[in-house]
Design a protein that fits this description.
Number of helices: 13
Structural class: alpha+beta
Number of strands: 14
Shape: globular
Largest sheet: 7 strands, antiparallel
Number of domains: 1
Strand order of the largest sheet: 3-2-1-12-11-10-9
Strand content: 5-15%
Length: 454
């Protein structure tokens, strides 16, 4: 009888061990998520997964096996490291070919300054360091959300936005379509400084409240007839953010997390408002040394004057959109951007899952004419500095903080170059990291990478 009791205890312990082992083997890819085709999206908390979850990345590949010269890649590393030695702050470079990472390196420092003071022990950059990706939010945030909603028949490219949003039905706004917002042809001129109480538009457009800012978007006058000309600005993507939130009933942050990033297992590698989501400032590169003051020469009420790290730099996003907008606000590491770029190159497929339909991805990746601005991404052939090197299907985009990407379907290749070039001395609006170093201008590194590909 005593032996039977012992055997029962052993059996119970074995069963418990099995349950524990099964639980530990659950990965983010196996965690169920809401059906993307559901008609009603239920709002979920803004808090993301804990950052202790494993980092996801594409598999590593031998660069020579994919046609790259190892010597040429070494020259790129030496070039960037030399610029770091001469004062450039830091960078992370990832190159993906045929679905494999063939080059991944970090250079320099994530943080060199505290205010204007040069740190005696600056923080080194690493491959997992997170960046304020600035206008790459338009690509890896807003564009992906729009594609998902097109797949679900909840948005249509050539539908007037007045069909989704109240207002936008006079002053020419009734002509604006979703496509026009995406390709910067909606007719808007220069961006509006909602946050600045020292401009001629202060009385009409001043706002430090997100709901108020969104309500003011419909009041911004057009400067050209919608569809006639292309002028890059952020207003269209702020309206797209409003549109996405109206159609889904949740914030753009929650929608992207649940329907794009979680299915890819990267929800802890790309997100809005990271300091509210278990991250600390040390997880991020530093951007401007003195807040938004351009080293102390700019001013408006409430302006930040401390070194920015983990807080979105963009003034409209931080002061007027509660750090969540369609034109900027996302933070990400290079691995997450590489995965999202590969989804585009795979025509919506990743690890056997069709995240976005191939038809929708082809629409966004096809260059319809020779103009610069396509459906968010830009025609690389329109950039005179790289047109001789990239293929005629290549697309690119830059971000103000120091981020750049190229997605090239012909070569099945993507280049992700993330820098903190604005974390450098500034004379009025001239940052040393932007003006004095080729790494900060992107095109030299992009050219060298194409030259490294045989």
């Amino acid at each position: 009888m005593h032996l039977v009791k012992k055997l029962k205890r052993v059996l119970v312990l074995l069963i418990l061990c099995i349950f524990i082992l099964v639980g530990c083997n659950q990965s983010p890819d196996n965690i169920p998520y809401a059906n993307p085709s559901a008609t009603n999206i239920i709002a979920t908390p803004e808090v993301t997964a804990e950052i202790s979850l494993p980092k996801h990345s594409l598999p590593q590949g031998d660069p020579q096996a994919f046609g790259f010269s190892s010597n040429a890649l070494d020259e790129i590393d030496s070039f960037i490291n030399d610029e770091v030695q001469n004062g450039f702050p830091g960078a992370v470079l990832v190159v993906v070919k045929d679905g494999y990472i063939v080059h991944q390196k970090s250079y320099g420092y994530a943080k060199k300054y505290d205010g204007k003071n040069l740190l005696s022990n600056p923080t080194s950059m690493n491959n997992d360091t997170m960046f304020d990706i600035a206008s790459l939010t338009k690509v890896y945030g807003t564009m992906f959300a729009v594609m998902k909603l097109i797949d679900d028949d909840r948005l249509a490219l050539d539908q007037n936005i007045s069909a989704y949003l109240d207002g936008y039905n006079e002053g020419g706004r009734e002509m604006i379509t979703v496509r026009m917002l995406l390709n910067h042809s909606a007719g808007y001129g220069s961006d509006v400084r909602f946050f600045d109480n020292n401009t001629e538009y202060t009385e009409t457009f001043y706002s430090t409240d997100r709901d108020k800012t969104i309500s003011l978007l419909n009041d911004i006058p057009l400067t050209t007839i919608p569809g006639e000309t292309h002028k890059y600005n952020d207003i269209g993507y702020m309206i797209l953010c409003q549109l996405i939130e109206k159609v889904t009933g949740v914030s753009i942050s929650a929608y992207l997390r649940d329907y794009v990033y979680k299915p890819l297992g990267i929800e802890n590698q790309i997100l809005y408002r990271p300091l509210d989501n278990s991250f600390t400032a040390d997880d991020f590169v530093a951007t401007e040394r003195m807040g938004n003051t351009r080293d102390g020469v700019a001013y408006f009420d409430g302006i930040r004057k401390y070194t920015l790290q983990g807080e979105v730099h963009d003034e409209k996003t931080y002061y007027s959109m509660d750090s969540v907008s369609g034109h900027s606000g996302l933070f990400a590491d290079a691995n997450a951007l590489a995965i999202l770029s590969q989804v585009m190159l795979n025509e919506g497929m990743y690890q056997g899952v069709q995240l976005i339909s191939s038809d929708t991805v082809r629409t966004f990746m096809t260059i319809e004419d020779q103009q610069k601005y396509q459906l968010t991404l830009q025609n690389a052939q329109s950039n005179k500095y790289i047109e001789k090197y990239v293929s005629d299907t290549a697309l690119y985009h830059y971000g103000w903080t120091g981020t750049a990407i190229v997605i090239d379907p012909t070569n099945n290749m993507s280049i992700i170059l993330l820098t903190n070039k604005r974390h450098s001395p500034c004379d009025w609006d001239a940052f040393e990291g932007n003006d004095n170093y080729e790494t900060g201008k992107y095109v030299t590194i992009i050219k060298m990478m194409y030259q490294a590909l045989d």
